[in-house]
Amino acid sequence: MSDQHPLDGKVILVTGAGGGIGRAIALEAAKAGASVVVNDLGASLDGKRESSEAADNVVSEIEKLGGKAVANGDSVADPDGAKAMVKQATDSFGRLDAVVNNAGILRDCFFHKMTYEDFDAVVKVHLYGSFNTSRAAADVFRQQESGSLIHMTSTSGLIGNLAQANYSAAKLGVASLSKSIALDLARWNVRSNCIAPFAWSRMTSSIKVDSPEQEERVNRMKEMVPEKIAPLALHLASDEGADITGQIFAVRNNEMFLMSQPRPVRSVHHGDGWDIESVRKQAIPALRPSFQPLDVSGDVFCWDPV
């Protein structure tokens, strides 16, 4: 392995790799020496199938760089589709070393207007999709006794955002899924981590702009290109990242963060046990100073990206 090609001999499956963050990771993986399975359903932003050209185009880009890649048009929301992606990797390149669970759709609307179909479709792609591909890859990884799963979560789930109950629920679920995989598969040297990416892409281009403040936030996001996400993802896929598992990172332009995971922040004790009155008088007043405010991702990441 060389510094220039840290992924020599590796095989990586990147879902939703026809554009945006997935495309950037696929291209950079190929430049780093990996063979790449470029998965993309060729769907519109809300998940309706359109064309398979996106994956083919990225494969062509990789081949022009002198790299190796194959296109895949299966849906991550379909368990058999996920199995087919993994089989295509092993059939084409003989092994599979990493999966980047990047595929996603959006159907944003306020909760009181959200339909079951809108909730179901988004959770199916993000959460079930991450499960399906990870579960299919787990069989190969266990046999190899190595492998890396890299999941895209979001500060919409980790912190909160307006009009994204479906997306937020799925993305926080992905973080918990990743931790469980890390625990369950550690004995086979399989690791699982999350990245919350900040980058301008087709998905973030759907953000509603209805105020000067929101317009300013969107303009800041346009400065954050998808290529900024790739180095961390590819380090996690490499042998040098083999000791990292169960973590949640965020990448915001040139900034990188390790995100906290839920842990107790304050406790109260009542020797005789609690009743409604003692909860009201003692527990809540003691705990209230440590309550989390009703903030959104933009409130927490409120400074300009650097």
Automatic annotation (TrEMBL):
Pfam families according to UniProt: adh_short (PF00106)
Residue stretches making up the Ketoreductase domain: 10-206
Protein name: NAD(P)-dependent dehydrogenase, short-chain alcohol dehydrogenase family
Recorded family membership: Belongs to the short-chain dehydrogenases/reductases (SDR) family.
Gene3D superfamilies on file: NAD(P)-binding Rossmann-like Domain
InterPro entries, A to Z: KR_dom, NAD(P)-bd_dom_sf, Peroxisomal_Beta-Oxidation, Sc_DH/Rdtase_CS, SDR_fam
Organism this protein belongs to: Pontivivens marinum
Record SUPFAM superfamilies: NAD(P)-binding Rossmann-fold domains
